[in-house]
Write a structure and sequence with these properties.
about 300 residues; alpha/beta; Rossmann fold; 5-stranded parallel beta sheet; 4-stranded parallel beta sheet
Length: about 300
């Protein structure tokens, strides 16, 4: 396995190789040991300055990146678009170039426009890490999801993973599909026909509209939330009806002939796509995903910084 990534930026899982993913995982294994010891900091990125630039609201991803950066001893700069000159009409490139003029080495960016990170990587001289761009990709979420499956089962290859819910508006779904397939897993998507993209079968995934059939097929169910903030029209009659058709509750889980693992990228709409007794059950690895997110982001930051030095 190569000791350096094949990419200079992390724009999307589509751009990375299976070897890249395995390198990130093995690096994250080492960092996970570090963050579970009494002294959680390492000096790996001392003197590296990282800007977290979020043009969309985020709690978990932003905090996870900030914590990863601090664990690596990097200097961090946090930028929220809601309180910035973007509100006054400043362009994306001007905003970023002003930040880079302060001698920033890496940029972690979340943006509502698909392709914003790719666009930026072609116009500025800095390492770009995509923390979610519109409905396009969310690569570190897919990496931590696959890493959590690997931790639970020993490997991802051969596992059957069902991604259930709002596939149409989800950047997590697309990144997960690319990541899981590169690691040899089988992927199925499930949800109302209105929330499944028309041509998603061309990506080599199975499509299922019946929740119970999807649950009976899979080893792992990754439950996605309904993204109301991205829906400009109604895709189903009501949340209550959606929950009746596609909500995962204990009764449905217990009716299966086997134990499956339940995941959720968060934030959870408890009582909509998943009930509290499922989210907090022994079959759920949701909190493991959160913990693994810090180790994965440490690995990504560390490997991309090393790539920049070469």
């Amino acid at each position: 396995m190569s000791e350096s990534l094949s990419v200079k930026h992390l724009i999307g899982i589509k751009d990375v190789t299976a070897n890249d993913i395995e390198l990130i995982f093995s690096t994250a294994d080492n960092f996970k040991q570090i963050i579970n010891r009494p002294i959680k900091k390492v000096p790996s990125l001392r003197d590296v300055t990282i800007a977290n630039v979020f043009f969309e609201n985020s709690t978990r991803t932003r905090i996870s990146f900030e914590l990863a950066e601090r664990r690596l001893s990097a200097d961090t700069l946090n930028f929220a678009a809601s309180s910035s000159s973007v509100k006054k009409g400043e362009t994306l490139i001007d905003t970023i170039n002003n930040i880079l003029a302060m001698k920033v080495d890496m940029i972690v960016m979340r943006h509502p426009s698909p392709g914003a990170c790719s666009f930026l990587s072609k116009h500025v001289d800095s390492v770009i890490i995509n923390a979610g761009d519109g409905t396009h990709e969310h690569p570190t979420q897919a990496l931590l999801d696959a890493f959590s499956i690997r931790e639970k089962y020993g490997e991802v290859r051969g596992k059957k993973v069902a991604i259930i819910g709002d596939i149409l508006h989800s950047r997590v779904a697309l990144s997960n599909i690319f990541c899981l397939q590169k690691l040899g897993a089988e992927v199925l998507v499930c949800g109302p026909p209105t929330l499944i993209p028309k041509h998603i079968g061309m990506l080599g995934v199975k499509v299922e509209y019946n929740l119970m059939k999807a649950l009976e097929w899979c080893d792992v169910a990754n439950m996605l939330r309904i993204q109301m903030e991205r829906q400009d029209i109604k895709y189903f009659p009501s949340l209550r009806e959606y929950t009746m058709q596609y909500g995962l509750n204990k009764e449905r889980l217990n009716s299966l002939k086997k134990q499956i693992t339940v995941m959720h990228p968060g934030p959870i709409n408890r009582g909509v796509e998943i009930t509290s007794d499922v989210a907090d059950s022994d079959q759920s690895i949701i909190l493991d995903q959160v913990e693994n997110g810090v180790a994965i982001r440490m690995a990504v930051l560390y490997l991309l910084a090393a790539k920049q030095e070469n």
